[in-house]
């Protein structure tokens, strides 16, 4: 990758702007030196954003007097918007700005939004009057909500630039054409999770405590300053980054392929590779990195079939209208995306589980006994249990399991993606089942004493949050790894956007399910499952069991259908690795480049 950038750096002034250092020093760019700045930036950015996200449910409940379905809708829709804007971020990164500038502008937008939310905590007029317990509370005025939503909106816009590019920009720093680069990239995804999780565990204990027990304004000001520090670190390392030139909008190419394939749907004979439009529009130092024609999803190959050369090609053999005739490269890019969709869908239900712990899980803790000795545990701290569980598993997996298992088997021993995702789905089912049992006990004790707060101790909620963290450690990391490795390097921003799109869909589906359950559960005049400020009046455990049932269906779907796509991917990856090893050893010669 680095050699390709160096060779291309003198071809145009535009590319020279993307690769700032001279040719003689560009070879030193990237690698773990650049990753150190990227992970430093990522750690402080995550500290800033998650400091707000982890405690937003508590903040809206205690300071904006929100409760029940409305609070869950606000948090879920905001989370959904934050995870769908990476689609726009990926478009800007791949077509216009590049990943470096997209990350920078996204960080600045997040900083603006975070500053606005911080002001809501510091200026009393921006919030409704404070109230306690289950008393009837005054709702926020429309203009107060508008200001709050504007701040959250800027944060969501910023997330579009950051989330679409941070992982892809980090992956750009490794040369995957070498064995060393491929080995480093395999560990990058886990260490990416590990580094910022450790930073969050250390810092969030302090930040959330300050927000809950000392001052919401100071507690919000700290992450705002951390985000400013994150931007500074990112800019300090600007000369050490490998910055790839924008390659064009992949999404428009996908639309062209779909359009062309649909227009040529009348072609009944499946096209062969020799009949497809495949001009030499792309050259590479390593032919292994070029997308070759594959036999999967052959319907899409119709987009590259030349039906009438006179009307579709000009005198130089180039397509006249790219919306009618696409090349093999464009078709194969869309195939990459279609190939990851079955696994991507399987991850959505797991992410719905994580949504429950961020909203209803925190509301459970708010209405419980959070006192340990003379110390009041902030409800937002429960998310730390998830992060600690995630960090511990990744450390054990990377530093204990893989080295020892590899030593025993005499080869690199990693759990397959199939196994890890299945474990993640099982963890999601267990998480909701445990949460249902704990909620039943919490509500029964509260009703028995006739109090708003249940005497159930906070320790009883730890298992469900730990299982939520393990769901993320197994399912989320594995899905992210699969998406990034399934697509070519030029589409990594798209892979990041697709991953966060699944989180967005999970948030929107959660909002839909919550509102449907709230409406349907009160049709016959029975006790509502959800709704209102007081969980003691609801049947939250039934909602948890409903989502757990969806998890069971998801496991069946993944085991019998989606896992086949991972198996096909891992088999092709093994074949490619064997070929690359033989090339490196000199047993196989690569085809010579076309002049």
Question: Could you explain how this protein is built, in words?
Answer:
- The chain is built from 18 helices and two strands.
- It is an all-alpha fold and 595 residues long.
- The protein has three domains: 27-247, MFS general substrate transporter like domains (Growth Hormone, Chain: A); 250-276 and 293-326, no CATH class; 337-578, Growth Hormone, Chain: A, CATH 1.20.1250.
Task: Give a quick set of tags describing it.
about 600 residues; mainly alpha; Growth Hormone, Chain: A; two-stranded antiparallel sheet; 2 strands; disordered C terminus; transmembrane; MFS_trans_sf
Structural class: mainly alpha
Strand order of the largest sheet: 1-2
Count structural domains: 3
Shape: globular
Topology:
Elements: H1 2-8, H2 13-18, H3 23-26, H4 31-63, H5 68-84, H6 86-122, H7 142-171, H8 179-214, H9 216-236, H10 250-263, H11 309-312, H12 328-358, H13 360-366, E1 371-372, E2 375-376, H14 382-409, H15 417-449, H16 462-486, H17 492-520, H18 540-585
Antiparallel strand pairs: 1-2
Helix pairs in contact: 4-6, 4-7, 4-8, 4-9, 5-7, 5-17, 6-7, 6-9, 6-17, 7-17, 8-9, 8-14, 10-12, 12-15, 12-16, 12-17, 12-18, 14-16, 15-16, 15-18, 16-17
Short characterization:
This is Nitrate transporter. This protein has 595 residues and is an all-alpha fold.
């Amino acid at each position: 990758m680095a050699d390709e950038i160096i060779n291309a750096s003198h071809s145009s002034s535009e590319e020279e702007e993307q690769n700032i250092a001279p040719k003689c020093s560009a070879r030193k760019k990237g690698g773990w030196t650049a990753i150190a700045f990227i992970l430093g930036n990522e750690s402080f950015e995550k500290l800033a954003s998650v400091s707000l996200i982890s405690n937003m449910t508590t903040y809206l409940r205690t300071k904006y007097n929100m409760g029940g379905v409305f609070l869950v809708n606000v948090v879920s829709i905001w989370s959904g918007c934050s995870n769908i804007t990476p689609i726009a971020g990926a478009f800007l990164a791949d077509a216009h700005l590049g990943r470096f500038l997209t990350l920078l502008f996204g960080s600045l937008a997040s900083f603006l939004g975070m500053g606005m939310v911080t002001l809501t905590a510091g200026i009393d007029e921006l919030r409704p009057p404070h109230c306690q317990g289950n008393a009837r509370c005054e709702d926020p005025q429309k203009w107060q909500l508008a200001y709050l939503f504007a701040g959250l909106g800027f944060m969501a816009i910023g997330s579009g630039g950051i989330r679409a590019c941070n992982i892809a920009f980090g992956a750009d720093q490794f040369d995957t054409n070498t064995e060393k680069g491929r080995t480093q990239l395999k560990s990058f995804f886990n260490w990416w999770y590990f580094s910022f999780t450790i930073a969050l565990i250390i810092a969030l204990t302090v930040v959330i405590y300050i927000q809950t027990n000392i001052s919401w304004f100071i507690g919000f000001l700290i992450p705002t300053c951390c985000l400013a520090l994150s931007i500074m670190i990112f800019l300090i390392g600007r000369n050490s980054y490998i910055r790839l030139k924008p390659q064009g909008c992949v999404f428009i190419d996908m639309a062209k392929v779909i359009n062309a394939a649909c227009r040529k749907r009348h072609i009944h004979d499946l096209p062969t590779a020799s009949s497809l439009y495949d001009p030499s529009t792309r050259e590479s130092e390593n032919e292994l990195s070029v997308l070759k024609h594959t036999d999967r999803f052959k319907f899409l190959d119709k987009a590259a079939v030349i039906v009438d050369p006179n009307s579709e090609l000009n005198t130089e053999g180039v397509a006249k209208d790219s919306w009618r005739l696409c090349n093999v490269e464009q078709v194969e890019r869309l195939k990459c995306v279609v190939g990851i969709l079955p696994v991507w869908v399987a991850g959505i239900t797991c992410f719905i589980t994580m949504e429950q712990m961020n909203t209803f899980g925190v509301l459970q803790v708010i209405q419980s006994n959070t006192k340990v000795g003379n110390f009041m545990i902030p409800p937002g701290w429960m998310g730390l249990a998830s992060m600690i569980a995630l960090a511990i598993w990744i450390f054990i997996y990377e530093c204990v399991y893989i080295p020892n298992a590899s030593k025993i088997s005499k080869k690199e021993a990693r759990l397959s993606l199939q196994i890890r995702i299945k474990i993640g789905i099982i963890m999601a089912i267990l998480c909701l089942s445990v949460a249902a049992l704990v909620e039943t006990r919490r509500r029964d004790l509260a009703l028995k004493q006739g109090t708003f707060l249940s005497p159930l101790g906070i320790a009883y909620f730890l298992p469900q949050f730990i299982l939520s963290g393990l769901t993320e450690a197994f399912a989320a990391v594995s899905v992210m790894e699969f998406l990034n490795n399934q697509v070519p390097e030029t589409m990594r921003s798209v892979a990041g956007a697709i991953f966060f799109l699944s989180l967005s869909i999970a948030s929107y589906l959660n909002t839909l399910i919550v509102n449907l359950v709230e409406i349907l559960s009160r049709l016959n005049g029975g006790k509502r499952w959800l709704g209102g400020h007081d969980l003691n009046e609801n049947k939250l455990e039934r909602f948890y069991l409903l989502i757990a049932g969806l998890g069971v269906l998801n496991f069946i779907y993944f085991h019998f259908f989606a896992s086949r796509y991972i198996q096909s991917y891992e088999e092709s990856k093994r074949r490619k690795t064997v070929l690359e090893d033989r090339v490196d050893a000199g047993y196989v010669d690569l085809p010579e480049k076309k002049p």
